[in-house]
Specification:
about 400 residues; mainly alpha; 3 domains; three-stranded antiparallel beta sheet
Length: about 400
Amino acid sequence: MQAQPQGRGGRCSEIMARLPFTTRVILAVNILVYFYELYNWDYVIQNYAFCSYMVHRGQYYRLITGAYLHGGILHIAMNMFTVFSLCIQIEQAIGSLALAGLTLAFTILSSSLEYFSRLMVVRASGDIVWLHSCSVGFSGVLFSFIVMHTYITRAENYNLCGLRIPAWLYPWVLLIGISVLFSGKVSFVGHLAGLLIGIAYVRGYLSILFPSRAALRRMEEWEYLSCLTESLMYSKCPVDPPIPTTDWISLTEICGRIYAELRRACDGISRFFQDAAASRAAANARAGAYEQVADQDPNLFANAPQSDQDIELAYSEGSPPAPSAPSFLDTSHISESPDEKGTVANHTLIGGSVEIGGARASEMRVVGSGPAGRSRLIDSIPRAKKDRGRR
């Protein structure tokens, strides 16, 4: 007898029957909590939404409860669709028990990172309003799952609205796209925190927080979990799961990697501030030297040229010698040679060299004093006449 094609209801029932255990629990918890929100919205949001200020006052349970609340039917629909599309493959790859532990860990870690980031902004800016903003939703955990999904599937590209995006760039494109599309309605800091937690996990920096694969298999043999592990919906931990796991022997290696990354970042920041301080000190020293010259003797450079035309005239026709420069000014690079008339302009030059009577005069700095007695700096000296035939 030929089988009759199933309708939409039968196909949906078949899909739901094949849902792995932990994925089903995640969907059920979020949906049931949302129905409870509809019954008593104000009370739930006021007492259980994630708020950095309330966490700061000791209500640490909000680090978990805020992730399972949603702001509307569209919000929960989009998040649950993402759970359905991601968690099935993740659970089949790593096992139901591992996914349950990761879900709880990602919830706490992403909320904690968001809290500490807001706290640092408040400390830096002094504006406490950053602590009073509240957020709800499972999106922070989902961004960790997105990063983990790209790691497990080993896909090279992802298709987003017809565009092929590299796998490593895909979570960042989603982060920016959602923030722009729903500007002012989503928590950018919460999404970014979840993404960073996911990256830290797949790179092995958080694997110390999770049990090893051997420990997971031993836990599945416990008597209390036997009723779940024998279920058809339960996915057991594979022998070699494609996730970063650790044994306690590798604790030193992981701590060493974290220390090396932090040390590299601190060294880079330290070098940046040292270079900036050195440049600022050098600039202040030069400015102080020029001011000291003018303060000691306002007439020290009275015979110095006042314009570019005076400089050119001094080198082409000769001028009376000016007072010599103080010893702390560097005049060692000045080369003076008499011109055809046997005279030379003895200006105070800082650096460079000059050929009087030749075809060039290299760029130099000339310290002089203006009509008001202020020291001034002429950045360059015009070149001497290049045409020797015109002398």
